[in-house]
Structures are given as structure tokens and as C-alpha cells.
Design brief:
With 252 residues, the protein is α/β, with parallel strands linked by helices. Helix content is 38%, strand content 23%. The chain is built from ten helices and ten strands. Bound molecules: adenosine-5'-triphosphate and magnesium ion. The site of adenosine-5'-triphosphate has 11 residues, from helix 1.
């Protein structure tokens, strides 16, 4: 589904992502782990199109995308969530989900005058879909509350509802378990599994090893901008290079 080849991103001469190559297969839930500062979020930003690479290529279903704009990549089916969710705090939960769909014609200024009914109809469709996704993640009872009232775990669920609004085929989740209490964590894991069963491919950054080991296969390990190895949880657990990277030793 996604092919990454020699991908590199430099910030002021320092390579945050340094010549990474791997392939993501359709239908998988792939994990991405590595110590703080390894370059995981930078790799996500490169795949989602927040910025272009310094060098290297990215292909989605055979199409080169590394120079495509972010919204074009969204249309090609790539969705992502953020490590630190920042919902619009005063806006209602459902409105936060609705704005994620982007591109609805209500935003196209002139159509509000030229075809107000079509705009209103589309808006009510978007609202209905937003409620559907809120129901899916178990947050619909909070739909009319301001987003600032959500707990950390609920914000992560809101992020999941938001990303699903763009109808993604590949979803990049940046630390879905961070700051989430165990009962909600179980909900998040169940929802990821359910979406995966419906055909959504996942790439998940996560520090919680139990979550990664139980949910993800394969798992990619990054350290200092490089891909150290990939394999199953078992293979990773006993790999000396991985242990070394986490203990702060440099990769040999
Ligand atoms: N926009 C930027 N400008 C300059 N340096 C950056 C930028 N973004 C990331 N970096 C640097 O690139 C390196 C990798 O950062 P990144 O956020 O990708 O790591 P990470 O693996 O996601 O870490 P964490 O687990 O802490 O989230 C770090 O040294 C970081 O300081
Ligand atoms: Mg990160």
C-alpha cells in the first residue's frame, strides 16, 4: 500500500529521518516504536505531507506522493492523528468532528449565496456522519459539550472520530494510548481492531509496549532517524540492538 524509499528529512543539517525504507502492506496494523527523538513523528509528517522530504520517495498504491500537498494525500486516503490533540476548546465536540471533514462546500464562500440549499443539505449530511463516528467511538453523549470538557482519553477518541471523517484507507495514529486511562485504552484498541476488520490499514506510533505487542504486527523500530529493524513483538523483544537503543546506547 505504502512504499517508503530512502526517505530523509533534515532540519538545519541534522537528519531527523535518515534514509528510511520500508513497505506497509494493506490490511495490517503496523507499529512504530523507538526512543524519544528517534524521528517517528517526523516520519508521520513526511507521510501525511506536512512537509516534503529532503530526499527519498513515497508511493501510495503505486503513485508517487512525496511532493503532493497534504490535502491531495488526504484525498488519496491518508489520514493522521496528532501526538498532542488540540481540539478547538470552545467549539462543541460534534463541530470539532465536522471541521475535520474539510472541503465541504459551505466553506466555499460563494456557494452559500448561489446554492444555499445544497450547502445546507451537505452540512446536514456532514453533521449526521459526525454523529455516526461519535457514536462509533462512544462519545455521542458529549456531542454538544465544548471540547474542553473532554478527558485526555476522550480527546484521543475524538481524534479517531475526526480522522475517520476523511474516509481514510491508511490511518497514522501518533501515540493513541498516551495519557489514556486503562478502561478507555481498551475502547481505543477495540475501535482500531474493528476499523482494521473493515479494511483500514494502520501505522501506529506508541510507547506503551503492551499495547504495541498485542495490537501490531509487524513492528518497526526507529532510533536516531534510522530504521533499526522490523519484526514481530517476540523478535523485537529479544533483539540486542533494540534493547541497546532504549538503554541510551548508540546503535552499533
Ligand atoms: N520542525 C522541526 N525543526 C527542527 N527540529 C525538529 C523538528 N521536528 C523534529 N525535530 C527534531 O527531530 C528529531 C526527531 O523528532 P521527532 O518528533 O520526530 O521524534 P519522535 O520519535 O516522535 O519522539 P517522541 O517519542 O518524543 O515523540 C528530534 O531531535 C527533534 O528535535
Ligand atoms: Mg513523536
Amino acid at each position: 500500500m505504502l512504499q517508503v524509499h530512502g526517505l530523509t528529512k533534515k532540519f538545519g543539517g541534522v537528519a531527523a529521518v535518515d534514509g528510511i525504507s520500508f513497505t506497509l502492506s494493506q490490511g495490517t496494523i503496523t507499529g512504530l516504536i523507538g526512543p524519544n527523538g528517534a524521528g517517528k513523528t517526523t516520519l508521520f509528517n513526511l507521510i501525511a505531507g506536512m512537509y516534503g522530504p529532503s530526499s527519498g520517495t513515497l508511493s501510495m498504491n503505486g503513485q508517487r506522493i512525496e511532493r503532493r500537498r497534504q490535502d491531495e494525500r488526504t484525498s488519496l486516503g491518508i489520514g493522521r492523528t496528532f501526538q498532542i490533540p488540540r481540539p478547538f476548546p470552545a467549539m462543541s465536540v460534534v463541530d470539532n468532528v465536522m471541521v475535520a471533514s474539510g472541503g465541504q462546500s459551505g466553506e466555499r464562500f460563494w456557494r452559500v449565496w448561489t446554492s444555499p440549499r445544497a450547502v445546507a443539505r451537505e452540512e446536514s449530511d456532514v453533521r449526521a456522519r459526525a454523529h455516526d463516528w461519535l457514536r462509533f467511538v462512544g462519545l455521542d453523549h458529549m456531542a454538544d459539550q465544548p471540547a474542553r470538557t473532554l478527558s485526555g482519553g476522550q480527546r484521543k477518541l475524538l481524534e479517531l472520530a475526526r480522522v475517520m471523517m476523511v474516509d481514510p484507507r491508511l490511518v497514522l495514529l501518533d501515540e493513541p494510548g498516551a495519557g489514556v486511562a486503562p478502561p478507555l485504552m481498551k475502547v481505543i484498541v477495540d475501535k482500531i481492531r474493528e476499523l482494521n476488520a473493515r479494511g483500514v490499514t494502520f501505522l501506529i506510533i506508541e510507547h506503551d509496549m503492551d499495547l504495541v505487542m498485542s495490537l501490531c504486527r509487524p513492528i518497526l523500530v526507529m532510533a536516531q532517524g534510522k530504521l533499526l529493524m522490523q519484526g514481530s513483538g517476540e523478535e523485537i523483544r529479544r533483539d540486542a540492538r533494540v534493547i541497546d537503543a532504549y538503554l541510551g546506547g548508540t546503535a552499533h
